Amino acid sequence: MKPKKIIIPAILALGLLPSAAQAANFTDTRGHWAESIINKLADAEVVHGISDTEFNPGGTVTRAEFLKMAMGVVGIKDVSYRNGECLDVKGTEWYAPCVQSALDKGLIPEDMIEGYAAKTDENGVLYSGAFNAEKAIKREEMAYIAQAMYQYSLDEKTYGTLKPSQDLTFSDVRAISIWALDGVRHAYTNGLISGMDDGNFHPQATATRAQAATIINNILDK
Fold this sequence. Notes:
With 222 residues, the chain is mainly alpha-helical.
């Protein structure tokens, strides 16, 4: 599924987890490489801690959590959950309207959906497969979704600012899944993601809360 392009106001920031805290209260981010970014986003109530004093920068982020955040920062609204059309997501889950909206807009890559299938009938498109929303998101998946959200938010005037993708210089570029490669290239070229200090991208590694906050900050800066 390729992301559609539409004019969307880039407002509406959402938190990483529901427990709010002021940035100055985080004791586990002091001296962390993402401290200033986390503090900035926490002060703006874009991200939140897991408690009043902890952000847990090295903790994992689920697919649903990152999808919700990325959609929020580019102003993509949830839609009403339609029973039976939202893969393996139950209507009672907090992320059901978010996943439904992302599916409808083509923002979730098919390769992130196990057993993906879509058919059209008189009621519209019906989806099947498993998104595994509570699974920890990989770095390549996060990069792909970040780029899809950024591209979706561009209008006719701003679409020209999208830079053509460049070849990646990461030492482990071959470890990037074929389906995610273009997304990672575009995300890197447009300044949404970066590599690690060792010269690798570590595409199959699970993303941390600090890394997710950094990418959200990069999207906001755009």
